[in-house]
Automatic annotation (TrEMBL):
Gene3D superfamilies: Tetracycline Repressor, domain 2
Protein name per Swiss-Prot or TrEMBL: DNA-binding transcriptional regulator, AcrR family
Ranges where the HTH tetR-type domain occurs: 1-54
Entry GO MF terms: DNA-binding transcription factor activity; transcription cis-regulatory region binding
Listed InterPro entries: BetI_C (IPR039538), Homeodomain-like_sf (IPR009057), HTH-type_TetR-like_transc_reg (IPR050109), HTH_TetR (IPR001647), Tet_transcr_reg_TetR-rel_C_sf (IPR036271)
Keywords, in A-Z order: DNA-binding, Repressor, Transcription, Transcription regulation
Organism domain of life: Bacteria
Organism of origin: Nonomuraea maritima
Residue range(s) of DNA binding per entry: 17-36
Upper lineage: Bacteria, Bacillati, Actinomycetota, Actinomycetes, Streptosporangiales
Pfam family, one: TetR_N
Transmembrane segments: none
Length: 189
């Protein structure tokens, strides 16, 4: 699966070949077919593997503002440290348009992501810590669209997420950010 992921990051799904994956892993082609009978089975496994890389980015407990900030920070870090992950997500989004299996995996992933985002935003509104004019459902969609757009300019992700965070909080941009539970160091962009 990881060899397939690396190959998709390099050449896209159109260039994904089972023989090449088997060769990259150092196994016989027939052994790979034992685990993935078809290319479609490997594509589905790559989609599941890729989506699972994002599971740790959204906390479900604690202060909603800290959770949201931590989520943005984790996504920005992934964009910086693992750009191949976002290259593959672009490939998955494109493939999902014509592949029902990939579409189902992506719809499921985004549904879970939306649910966590909407809950976090609603809790922040209820607690009075977020811009009272935001709509949690629309703002969750804005976050997802912004993350997908930031994939195209990963070097600007920190600035993009900082501005989105400030809009959601309803405050001007500044260096005063709520603490991130993972790190308290300031970013340099």
């Amino acid at each position: 699966m990881q060899a397939g992921f690396r190959l998709v990051a390099e050449v896209g799904f159109e260039g994904l070949r089972l023989r090449q994956v088997a060769e990259d892993v150092g196994i016989d082609h027939s052994t790979l077919h034992h685990h993935f009978a078809t290319k479609q089975d490997l594509v589905a496994a790559i989609a599941a593997y890729t989506v699972s890389q994002f599971w740790f980015t959204a906390q479900e407990d604690g202060d909603p503002v800290v959770r949201l900030r931590s989520h943005f920070d984790a996504l920005a870090r992934l964009l910086r440290e693992h750009p191949d992950l976002f290259t593959v997500t672009v490939e998955l989004d494109l493939r999902a348009r014509r592949d029902p299996t990939v579409r189902a995996a992506m719809v499921e992933h985004e549904a879970g992501w939306r649910q966590v985002l909407v809950r976090t935003l609603a809790e922040g509104l209820a607690g009075g810590t977020l811009n009272r004019e935001i709509d949690p459902v629309a703002t969750a969609e804005l976050i997802i669209a912004t993350v997908k757009g930031a994939r195209l300019v990963p070097g600007r992700a920190d600035v993009i997420f900082d501005q989105l965070f400030a809009l959601i909080l309803g405050c001007p941009l500044s260096d005063d950010r709520p603490p991130n539970e993972e790190t308290s160091e300031k970013r340099t962009s």
